[in-house]
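Researcher: Re-running this chain for the archive, since the previous output was lost when a drive failed. Same request as before.
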Amino acid sequence: MEIIQVIGIVIAIMLIIYGAMKGFSILIVAPIASIIVIVTNQMELFSSLIGKESSYMTGLTGFIINFFAVFLLGAILAQYIDKSGAAQSIAQKILEKTGTEKPFPVLVALLMITAILTYGGVSLFVVIFVLIPLAKPLFKQLNIAWNLVTIPIQVGLGTFTMTMLPATPSIQNVVPTAYLGTTLTAAPMLGIIGAVVAIAFGLWYMRFTLNKSLANGETFADFNVKDSNEELKKEIPSFIVSIIPIVLLIAVIIVGSALKVPNIIVIGLATAVIVSAILFKKYIPSQKTVINEGASGSIMPVFFTSSAVAFGVVITIAPGFKYISDFILNIPGNPLISLSVASALFGGITGSASGALGIVMEAFGQSYLAMGLSPDVIHRVSAVASSVITLMPHNGAVLTFLALTGLTHQNGFKYQFIAVTGANLLALIAVIIAAIIIY
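Model: Regenerated C-alpha cells:
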C-alpha cells in the first residue's frame, strides 16, 4: 500500500509538469493532481480538498491572505514605473553610460537595467516588456545573435535580485518571513556572497557565449525576428525622478527590517506607490487606469502561486509523503544540503520558486528549526535553492520571454537555462559553505 501512495504522489507531480509544459493553467491542473494524490493515498476527498483544517483550499486561501497585499501593491508599482516611462528613462541612461557601439557593454547594460528594476520591485514580466523593444534595434545594429539577449535579462531577474540581495522586495524573499519570523534582510552576508558569485558567473558566461557566437558567424538575421511595433515614449521623467521610488522602497525595507517593523514590505511598496503617483502624474494620462490595470494584473500571479502551494499542502498531508519527507530529511551531510535539495526539487516541479518556498516552509520549516538551524540561514539558503532549477521549459517567465522575443525553445532556451541555473547553483554552493563557516 505504501508504494501505491508514493507512486500516486509521483504521478501527480509528473502531471503538474506535463500540464504546464502543454500550456494548461495550473488553476486546472493543480486540483486534478491533488485528487490523484487523495485517491491513491485513500484520503477523504472533500475534507482534503475543501476542509477547514489542512486542505487544498486552506493552502490556497492561506497563501493569498498572507501575500495578496504584496502582489497587489507590487503590480501597481510596476504599472507606474512602466506607463510613466520611468523604466525607459532608467534604461536609456544606463545605455548612454555604457555605450551602444560594442556588443559586450550592451549585454552588461541590459543586465544592469534588469537588476535595478527588479531590485526596485518591478515585476519581471514588466521588465521583459520594457527591455525587448529597447534591445532589438541595438542587436540589429550590432548584427549579433538575437538569442544572446536571453542571458543578461534572465540573469538580472532570476538570480541575485530575486533571492540573494538583502532587502530585495521579491516574493521569493518575502515568503520565508511568514513562516520563520525573519526579515527581508535575513543573513545579509550570505546573500551578498551568493550575489557576487552569481554576477561573476553571469558576466563570464555572457562573454563566453558572445565570443563563441561571433566565432561561429551568427548574426541577427539568422533568427528571422520581426521588427517590434512598439514605440518608445517621447516624454519621460528624468533618470533622477525615475529612480526615486525604487531607492525609497529599498531604503524603507532596509531601515524597517533593522527596526523589526512588521509587514515592512507592504509599507515600503505602499510608500513607493504613493510617491510614484505624485512624481509621475504628468507622464500618465490616467492614474485610475494604471491602478486598475495593476490591480487586475495582480490576480493571476497570486492565484497561480497559491495553487502550487495548495497542491503542496495536499502532498504534505498525504500518508505517502512521510516516506518522501524521511528521505529528504535523512540525506547525509549538513542539514542545509537536504534543505537545498527539497527547495530545488519543488522549484523544478512547480516551475515557481515562490510556490516551492511555500511548500517547503509548510512541510519542513519547523523540522529544520528543531534541528537548531538559524531561521535567517534557513530563509536565505532555501530562497537561493528554490530558484536553482526553476527555469524549466514550463516556467512562466520562459514562456513569456520566448513569446515576446520571437525565439523558440530550440534556439532560445539553452542559454537562459545554463546562465540562470549555473549562476544559482554556484551561488547556492558558496552560500552553504559560507553558512557552515559563519553560523
